[in-house]
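Hi everyone,

Forwarding the result from last night's run.
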Amino acid sequence: MKNAMLNRHRYAPVAWLIVIALSVFTLTRLLLLFSFYNEIRPSLGSFFTALLTGFGYDLITVFFVALPLALHIAFTSEWIYSRYGRWVMIALFAAGLFVIFFTGLIPKEFNKHLPLIFGSYILLRLLIFLLLLYKGHAFRLRWRATVLQGWLLIFVFLLLFNAVSEWFFWAEFSGRYNFIAVDYLVYTHEVIGNIRESYPVGWLIAITALVAGAITWLLRSAYRSSVTMPATWRTHIIAALILFGLPALSVMAGDPGWKNISKDNYTQELGANGFYEFVRAFEQNELDFYRYYETMPDKEAMKLVRDKLTTPYTTWSSDPMSLERTIQYPGAEQKMNVVLISVESLSADFMGSFGNDKGLTPELDSLGARGILFRGMYASGTRTVRGLESLSLALPPTPGQSIVKRPGNENLFSLGSIFRSKGYITQYLYGGYGYFDNMNYFFSHNDYEVIDRSALRSDEIHYANIWGVADEDLFTLALRTFDQNYAAGKPFFSHVMTVSNHRPYTYPEGRIDIPPTAHSRDGAVKYTDYAIGDFIRRASSHPWFKNTLFVIVADHCASSAGKSALPPKGYHIPLIFFAPGHIAPTVDDKLMAQIDIAPSILGFLNFDYKSRFFGQDIFHIPENAERRAFISTYQGLGFLRDSLLVVQSPVKKIQVYRPDFKSSQAQEVPRVDSLVREAMAFYQTAAWVIREGKYKIR
């Protein structure tokens, strides 16, 4: 009985941390439910399903959370201050310092400060050890209680702050942490700056710290008792079995997939655990298509794709496992300049041309009325990098991370490579710093010259936030660059990526009737629209303007959330071809994929070239030809055709839906074999050409 009491006292802080973590996880789930109830609207069954599956994920996660604290308690020992133990510890500290400073185990080439950082830490621990040795047992108990209190304070603060972060993440992305959260940790400068500019971070941290401090103070008897009570070996063994055994079993078992018990995407997300989903997203940066998705023989898939991409102007390679084909159009090529503007987060329903009555996009609506307005365009994904991938490579989205951010993404068949082979200057212009999202590396290794905000003089920047300069300043840089291209006597293809339509939604004063202090999405959309219209007006006075095709498209929508995992409405974006004197005003309402833009630009120019693109040139296909589109998350692969949506998911799952294109609802229908096989073939072939290096040109 006495040993049992000692055991409980010894690990009481761990037990309390487990209770607090489970409570915070459950309260977070309830907070998300009630805060976004109008969006989620679960049935009673869905509510209890989310609670039950959520508790399972919480239980797995909580043991990982508690493990560091348990290890700290387990390895707290008086033996190290004994007659022999003290010399063992001093020898270990000395050995550690020797290894760090004299063996080169930590390479300075990676970071010259790392040896100093690690060495300073070991030296600090040695000094603390010597202080505790000198001060004696009573002082050591007070020290240990203070340290344990600090550990608890940190853990409780992180649990609470994570709950707050999850609320804001859901408000932005309508779900738990995913690849976006993982990506954002890599780019801490932009992300922390964006958060500071968007939310009252100081107050949030202060309030969270006060609550964490109060909870820690209420538990003071637990950590004081813990440091005074010894533990038996049996205690340590039982604690180790529980705290190491359960996490180890969960790792070996893999993701149990409990949240997939519901077909409602919101219920699945509600039933997840933020910590768990973050680690899962980090681990699944790429997914092996052949392992997780239903497949067919590669030869069969390739043949089907080749058949679907065949036109009267196509001559295929003799290799049946190659997508390379020669495209030859009748008539002469048009060596026009091309300016491709990809606009940050511009959903179609922001535009008056698509029914919006707020007057947010008068400039874009005017350009669409004077050019070709494509009303059936769908983005490939939900992130800028996925849009850049589609616009530059014309490749269906493959599961996992965008190719823009994957290793081995050099020398790919790209729109830039085609224009460069035609003698064009090819460029990628970005309003932020090009290292973000690996843009510098990807574009510079795929036949583009990268030009970012660092090319602007300080007097050319009217406004900038953490993401980049105001769009009007980016277009100032673009105009100067295009003038230089023209002076060089070469045609140019320039891809311009805007940044202003992004949280914190700030922009220069006095441009539009919505002040930047409102921090509203409507204001950011209207400012971006203003900047594009201003750019076109300024460009019209330049000598290269009359021989230039302007292509304006969104990279993705402002939000892709809905009751179904892949609601087409969340991928619906505008596309405009504008070239005064070359284009008659037209509206195209037919279905179109973001990957169709690259071959359509080349088709508009009547270029003859060798292609590997998966997209269609919509200017040279028959009037009654099948139109298709590709939409995706990092795991869900959607294929739109004939008003039906095929969704391929991991664990070799395929479902067919009849979506409501005006809402986020979708009704599941029986599989249509020909449609499913076409969807499988396109996605599988895309994964195959990347895996086998068949999309590389050198």
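The radius of gyration is 29 Å.

Cheers,
N.
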